Amino acid sequence: MGPHPAVAAIRLAVRRVLHDILIEHSADSPDSALRHVPRRTSAPGTAYERPTSPLVLVACSGGADSVALASALAFEAPKLGIRAGGITVDHGLQSGSDLRAEEVVQRMCELGLVPAESISVTVGREGGPEAAARDARYAALDAAADRHGATAILLGHTRDDQAETVLLGLARGSGIRSLSGMAAVSGADGRYRRPFLQLDRQTARKACMVQSLPVWDDPHNADPAYTRSRLRHEGLPALEKALGKGVVEALARTAQLSRDDADALDHWASLAEAGVRDDSGRLECAKLYALPPAVRRRILRRAAIQAGAPAGALFARHIEEVDRLITGWRGQGAINLPGKVVAQRQGGRLVIRQG
């Protein structure tokens, strides 16, 4: 008799991602071309070069999604010759968070994950509590991956999380890239992987229950003070009541379609950018004006980021103001952007620089 369907589903999702990681690691390994080439050794016989076994970490908060992911990684990784470890991040935002982090480390050790460690972070205030906690968490995970030499970090975001992300992007009015939600592969060199984006939250919780894996429900996830919590417990249920079941699946599908479109437009903008710059590298307004708005605004956004504007603080309204220097020029002055960046039209050229 095979495993419970929920357990089988999470293991299959992780197995597919681990296969991808293994193939990429073998292709990128400096000695990949030598793996079957004999080399001289001092001992008799023939030795063969072998690539180092990759290390994959799981980011585990102790919640059902990440515990299910940790259990699937611990089960699947050894069968593929992959080392598996786990990291939990203590944000220090709740009383007793250090003790809960220790419990999560203990559970990861019981699953056979090595290394298994807790990292304490200090959460700032920039961008709001949710964004600040996210920034601190990813910085800690990046540092852990570098320290241990990990090839990838698995994240437990589910299809439900994806649907929430799409709705939050829609509410911000930030454009098609926000509607594309979270990527299955992201970060520097594809470090972050999200195996559960096609699975719902209930599948992960069921997998934990049938395996008798204890989970911790973060009270912040039910706190109406947080936007995502209100969306999860009030917004999405209201949408499903009004529109019927299937809203989450439809939003997740929208994310994938939007990502495909956004990737294509980004590629177009990348190719078009060289053609709208003069010999000194300045942007020519007339050539920018001739481009489709979606392509032109991508070029403007990229130029602002290159000049020092923080990507997370650069919103659609900022780019629209800069775009009016191209499409609605009436002698207006410079546009101030986040990061002390200034955009100004000068003699038919658009200059974006540090103010």
UniProtKB/TrEMBL annotation:
Residues 56-234 form the tRNA(Ile)-lysidine/2-thiocytidine synthase N-terminal domain. ATP binds at S61, G62, G63, A64, D65, S66. It holds the Pfam family TilS. GO terms for cellular component: cytoplasm. Its main location: cytoplasm. Keywords: ATP-binding, Cytoplasm, Ligase, Nucleotide-binding, tRNA processing. Residues 283-350 form the tRNA(Ile)-lysidine synthase substrate-binding domain. The keyword ATP-binding applies. The keyword Nucleotide-binding applies. Its EC number is 6.3.4.19. GO terms for molecular function: ATP binding; tRNA(Ile)-lysidine synthase activity. InterPro entries: Rossmann-like_a/b/a_fold (IPR014729), TilS/TtcA_N (IPR011063), tRNA_Ile_lys_synt (IPR012094), tRNA_Ile_lys_synt_N (IPR012795), tRNA_Ile_lys_synt_subst-bd (IPR015262). It is an enzyme of class 6 (ligase). It catalyses: cytidine(34) in tRNA(Ile2) + L-lysine + ATP = lysidine(34) in tRNA(Ile2) + AMP + diphosphate + H(+). It is found in: Cytoplasm. Belongs to the tRNA(Ile)-lysidine synthase family. Ligates lysine onto the cytidine present at position 34 of the AUA codon-specific tRNA(Ile) that contains the anticodon CAU, in an ATP-dependent manner. Cytidine is converted to lysidine, thus changing the amino acid specificity of the tRNA from methionine to isoleucine. The N-terminal region contains the highly conserved SGGXDS motif, predicted to be a P-loop motif involved in ATP binding. This is tRNA(Ile)-lysidine synthase. The lineage of its organism: Bacteria, Bacillati, Actinomycetota, Actinomycetes, Kitasatosporales.
